Amino acid sequence: MADRASGRGRATKAGVDRLLRGVGVSSGIAIGPAHVVDAGALLAPEYAIPEDGLEAEVQRFATAADKARRQVRKLKTKSSALPDSAAEEIGILLDAHFAMLSGSRLMRGVEKRIRQDKLNAEAAVQAEITSIAQSFADMEDAYLAARVADVREVGQRLLRNLMQHKYQAFSFLPEGCIVLAEDLSPADTALMDPRRIGGFATMLGGPEGHTAIMARSLGLPAVLGTLGLLQGVQNGDTVVVDGIAGQVCVNPSPDVLDGYRRRRAELLAERAQLKTLRKLPAITRDGTAVTLNANLELPRELDGALDVGASGVGLLRTEFLFMNREDLPDEDEQTEILTRIVASMDGKPVTARTLDIGGEKIATALRGYFSEPTNPALGLRAIRLSLKEPKLLETQLAAMLRAGAHGNLRILLPMISSVAEVRRVREIMATVVRRLRRRGVKIAHPLPKLGIMIEIPGAALSADGLAPFCDFFAIGTNDLIQYTLAIDRGDEQVADLYDPLHPAVLRLVQFTTEAALRARIPVSICGEMAGDPRYTALLLGLGIRELSMAPNNLPVVKRRLRGLDLVEATRRARTIMDQTDQGRIAALLDDFNDAAV
């Protein structure tokens, strides 16, 4: 990517045993040849902008430039932790890039070309880069000639942001390779086949972002937020990604490599041992049954969910239907794919969530439905987008109703904040049902149950009012923590502040659970807390009896709950809920878990 390119001629060759530290987001150890992602030159589209669309196009360029500045600032912050000489060298380079993105000739020239030549932003960027490069070349100055590469790199970053460029070459990589990149989006990660890709590491990203979630779901060892990752590393270098310790080792010595191989063998043996739990019931020591479901990001994970003994699919993220394509899937295509998943579960429940595009999860095919907001996490996304563009929702609901005729399907609505939203969805669903029946199309009977995600603090606090209008709750702890603590869960700079044990978060979970129990509707946890055995006792002690997680996490959670005494867990949960200090909460929980080992 751009940062790798910017290091040409500046970075030193990666040496032996070069150990880099980041944030381990998906456990496991991967060893293989490096594949360094380099976005390369993009072919910018060119088209005319009508007079009444010029201001919107200028704003689109300004948004891309603002995003580029944020990216460069992030890289500058991370580079400051490198050794002094490297930090200074990279810092000077990134300062120059930032200057080019702030009121420079490049920025002024692009805006002028949009307004005067009525060019789209991509074409204007490409034209201005070419013009600046030519003017530098004409001066026959060696220093200015060297700066042309920097101008081109800044331009490429702008183009990537404007075009929302995605990677498409993962299917052609050598088997077992390790992908290294400045950053990877969830859509990029969705292209990775675990049978071919060994693991990946990036310079940017946090443990609870959707890229991390995708890595866990695919079972790919991954480390994000890795300082200096791309400096000096070459394609083919031997790389180890340790997703447990949060480390990346480049060109390890034979002794170090042998150590990693032994640890990997031990992990694989432990996983084989956990597989023996597959047919054992998910039941506590004192006889309380717990439902363990799988979260699915992609259809290809279905076999893995069945292999580990999942009771059903607790969360099917339907965004995969819209990612990495230029067109929207129609009703028949969505029906066909959902039907295959539902039928494959052979009567086990499948909870399909309607579209949750927005924030970090952007689909190219939906680009025309919204512009990139200043704060994506708080913008037009999830149910807000579906209700603003009801045709999208109608198509999804029709496909789900049709797929529901072939098995046990439930419908889940993301990012609900009010009763009015639930009522509106039910009205749209009733309209879709009538239309399908008029067409003589076979649909689910009885109609699928309709539930909501509790992932906004306002929804948790009004759970009592929402419950009468819902058939079930699913608590999405990922966004609930993000919105409660005002922390970007995909930002490695604040990853240490993202704390599921914050008392405010726990109280919202408790409030929601108690509201569901009073209303006699099912309630589950389908966020990342569900897949971490550290939290199993606490969640069960709060009254949760259904957990949904990445398939790879299910065996270890089952092992933990089978060793639990629910009476003791409930007692400890009550003690924890009396606390106000998250450090004390963590100590009480960890002491309880340690006593069970």
UniProtKB/TrEMBL annotation:
Cofactor(s) the protein requires to work: Mg(2+)
One GO BP: phosphoenolpyruvate-dependent sugar phosphotransferase system
UniProt domain Phosphotransferase system enzyme I N-terminal: residue ranges: 21-147
Binding-site residues for phosphoenolpyruvate, renumbered to this chain: 317, 353, 478-479, 489
Alphabetical keyword list: Cytoplasm, Kinase, Magnesium, Metal-binding, Phosphotransferase system, Pyruvate, Sugar transport, Transferase, Transport
NCBIfam families from the UniProt entry: PTS_I_fam
The protein's name: Phosphoenolpyruvate-protein phosphotransferase
Organism (species): Nitrospirillum amazonense
